[in-house]
C-alpha cells in the first residue's frame, strides 16, 4: 500500500494538469506546512523566524516546468531577486536552485548563462548557491556543469544522492575540486539499474559517502531526518576529531522541527531548506511520496 501511494504521488508531481490545478487553489490542504509561501516576502519572514532560534536557511524558488527561454530567464530573475532580498533583509540564508528551471532541458548554453548571472550576484553579496540534483537523466550533465562553473566560482556547491550506484566514484572525482556537497539519500523514483532498491543498501552507502567526504577534508552538509544517520555523523566527527564548523545538518522546512532545535541546542549548525513560490505542487508531491504518513496530515486539513 505504501509503495502504491509513493508511486501515485511521484506520478502526480510530474503531471502538468495537476500542477495547473494546484496553482489555481493555492497552498491549501496542508502544503503550507512544507512550503514557506508563494512570495519572496513570505519566504524571508519564514527564514527570519528560523534565524531567531539559531537555525540558518537555504531558500529555493520552486520551478518545475520550463518550456521556453523566456520562462528560464524569468526563473533566473527570481533567483536573483531572492539573493537581493536576502541581502537587503540581512537574514542568514543561502540560495538553492534546480537547473531545469533555468533552461537545462532547452540548452546547456542557456542554463550556463543563467547560472553565471546568479552566481555573479551571489558573489557580489558574499553568498553561496547550491545546485539541487534532480533525476538520474540529469545527473551527468549537472555534474559536468558544476565542474565547469567551479573553474570560475568558489561560491557554488551541488547535491549528491546516496541511492545511486555511481555515487562513491562521484565523491572521489569531486574531491579534486574540494567540493562543498549536500549529501542526501535521494527522492526520485529510479530504476534498479542505476539505484539501490533496498533501504539498507542506501543507508550503508550514505554512511560511506559521509565518511569519505568528511575525511577528505571537504565541507559536508548531511541532509537527513533519519536519526540513525544523524547519530552516525555525530559519532564519526567525534571519533575523527572533525570540527563542528566543517559540516552541518540540513532538514526540510516543516519537518522534524523539534529535532532541528535539539541539534542547535547541542551546538551543531542546522540549515533548513525553505522552498517558496507558486510552482510548489511537484515539490509537495515528492514530500508525500517520501513519507506517505504525511498524507494523514493533508487529509486532516482538507476537512477542517
Automatic annotation (TrEMBL):
Q: Which UniProt keywords are given for this protein, alphabetically ordered?
A: FAD, Flavoprotein, Nucleotide-binding, Oxidoreductase, Proline metabolism
User: What is the enzyme's main class?
Assistant: oxidoreductase
Q: Where in this chain does the record put each Proline dehydrogenase domain? A: 45-298
InterPro entries according to UniProt: FAD-linked_oxidoreductase-like (IPR029041), PRODH_bac_arc (IPR008219), Proline_DH_dom (IPR002872), Proline_oxidase (IPR015659)
Biological or metabolic pathway of the protein: Amino-acid degradation; L-proline degradation into L-glutamate; L-glutamate from L-proline: step 1/2
- UniProt keyword annotation of Nucleotide-binding present: yes
- Catalyses which reaction(s): L-proline + a quinone = (S)-1-pyrroline-5-carboxylate + a quinol + H(+)
Question: Which residues are in coiled coils?
Answer: none
Annotated Pfam families = Pro_dh (PF01619)
Q: What is its EC number?
A: 1.5.5.2
Q: Gene3D superfamilies given for it?
A: 3.20.20.220
Q: Which cofactor does it need?
A: FAD
Is Hydrolase among the key words of this record? no
Q: What is this protein called?
A: proline dehydrogenase
Give the species this sequence originates from: Paenibacillus aestuarii
Amino acid at each position: 500500500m505504501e509503495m502504491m501511494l509513493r508511486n501515485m504521488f511521484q506520478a502526480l508531481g510530474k503531471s502538468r494538469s495537476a500542477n495547473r490545478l494546484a496553482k489555481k487553489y493555492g497552498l491549501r490542504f496542508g502544503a503550507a506546512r512544507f512550503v514557506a509561501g508563494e512570495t519572496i516576502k513570505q519566504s524571508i519572514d519564514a527564514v527570519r523566524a528560523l534565524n531567531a532560534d539559531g537555525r540558518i536557511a537555504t531558500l529555493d524558488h520552486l520551478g518545475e516546468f520550463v518550456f521556453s527561454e523566456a520562462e528560464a530567464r524569468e526563473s533566473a530573475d527570481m533567483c536573483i531577486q531572492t539573493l537581493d532580498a536576502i541581502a537587503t533583509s540581512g537574514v542568514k540564508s543561502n540560495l538553492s536552485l534546480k537547473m531545469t528551471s533555468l533552461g537545462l532541458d532547452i540548452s546547456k548554453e542557456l542554463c550556463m548563462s543563467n547560472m553565471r548571472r546568479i552566481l555573479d550576484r551571489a558573489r557580489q553579496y558574499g553568498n553561496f548557491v547550491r545546485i539541487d540534483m534532480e533525476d538520474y537523466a540529469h545527473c551527468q550533465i549537472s555534474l559536468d556543469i558544476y565542474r565547469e562553473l567551479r573553474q570560475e566560482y568558489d561560491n557554488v556547491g551541488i547535491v549528491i544522492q546516496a541511492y545511486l550506484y555511481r555515487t562513491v566514484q562521484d565523491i572521489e572525482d569531486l574531491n579534486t575540486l574540494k567540493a562543498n556537497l549536500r549529501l542526501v539519500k535521494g527522492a526520485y523514483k529510479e530504476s534498479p539499474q542505476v539505484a539501490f532498491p533496498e533501504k539498507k543498501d542506501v543507508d550503508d552507502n550514505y554512511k560511506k559517502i559521509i565518511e569519505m567526504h568528511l575525511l577528505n577534508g571537504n565541507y559536508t552538509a548531511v541532509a537527513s531526518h533519519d536519526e540513525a544517520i544523524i547519530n552516525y555523523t555525530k559519532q564519526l566527527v567525534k571519533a575523527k576529531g572533525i570540527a563542528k564548523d566543517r559540516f552541518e545538518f540540513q532538514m526540510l522546512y516543516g519537518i522534524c522541527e523539534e529535532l532541528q532545535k535539539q541539534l542547535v541546542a547541542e551546538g551543531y549548525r542546522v540549515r533548513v531548506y525553505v522552498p517558496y513560490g507558486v510552482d510548489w505542487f511537484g515539490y509537495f508531491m515528492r514530500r508525500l511520496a517520501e513519507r506517505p504518513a504525511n498524507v494523514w496530515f493533508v487529509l486532516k486539513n482538507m476537512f477542517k
